[in-house]
Amino acid sequence: MSTEKLPNPNENFSEWYNQIVQRAELADYAPVRGCMVVRPYGWALWENIQKSLDDRFKATGHVNASFPLLIPQSFFEKEKEHVEGFSPELAVVTIGGGEKLEEPLVIRPTSETIIGYMYSKWIKSYRDLPILINQWANVVRWEMRTRLFLRTLEFFWQEGHTAHATSEEAVEETLRMLDTYASFATEEAAIPVLPGLKSDSEKFAGAVNSYSIEAMMGDTKALQSGTSHYLGQNFAKAFNIQYLDLQNQLQYAWTTSWGVSTRMIGGIIMTHGDAQGLVLPPRLAPIQVVVIPIFRSEDEKSTVLPVVEQVKKQLAGFRIKVDDRTEVTPGFKFNDWEMRGVPLRIEIGPKDVANNTVAVSRRDKPGKEGKSFIPIVNLDTAVGKFLVDIQASLLEKARAFRDNHIKDPKDFDEFCKVLENNWAFSFWCGDAACEAKVKELTKATTRCIPLNQSDLKGKCIVCGKPAHQKAYFAKAY
Description:
34% of the residues lie in helices and 27% in strands. By secondary structure, it is α+β, with helices and mostly antiparallel strands.
């Protein structure tokens, strides 16, 4: 690990982020431009995200399956909006086995088309509905401007795809999964997201409605952290997904799709990280507790290590790591694990052994503020309470930061100034021309329109016409 200080996030947030990803050994650049290698520590974090989401999906009746990476190019021409939206990003295979293919194959950018094709084979009757399938997969989108985790040519995600007998069921599913994402982000990642409807210009290509969870990063930019799409019958008609209803009439199914990707890792870094490196929420941290033995002689070593082993067994219910490296100093280890964002550090030296205590340091509270001496007796209970408190503290801090940087400007001039370093929550008439003007003048976009806005009356912040909804506007990744 480099001993150089990280760039100051308040001065160069972008470089601070790039260095954290590499120095904390989350990911590295691959030899193909725009691709990344996810290193074991980063993959362990992704596995914890996967498990938490997967448990939530299964609790709501979804099952996992796997669909092909290669998709016939003709599939992307069946749904007009979809092909127009994805054409610039497609990676196409034209040669296989040394010969030119009869039909080019697209490397999966998303799976609505191939899954739509399979659903048309599987769905024949109302008894076959609903189908609630999720896939954990990698996808390829030919991005021009890339950044590790946030926007890469190849990335990892889950994509849910469901088919229903009625529009009402499909809409209910779309919103259920939006709520699932919001609760995951808040409860597990400690990111206080804002759920809502995307504007028509920002929605998924081929969707009737798109919804997202939007998060504010440490530089106040927005990160779209998960999306849920109500596809109506667009893909059902394109791929002939039909079923016989109770009256023996042929009907088109109603479908949805929804996804969260490794972008969530970027969101965790940029929401909680500080000048020392990562700060990981305990519920998702690959290592929740690191134990560092401290000794200067063989006598001290023989005194300390048995207690370290005792503590390790006592804390077996947590994700724990004993750092027994002898080639580096305790100070180096402290900095190393701070960089990696481990929520809790326990130090055990001869004095601690004599006092039957351990020194505990919280990652979310640097220096003396976060350090305390805890009896070894019932240490597991104390550690559990610490981790719960750290999780809550990170969420509270992120929520306070977010709320402090959301403004309600009085007029368009103030609106433009607010968007330099904050979000605006303002009335919008819904006109795409107003949205385009905001983007042109400020580089900000509509992030989402909160649901259940009733009886609101105001004037559009851009054109002054009557408006009945407010939207979040912000610059975004």
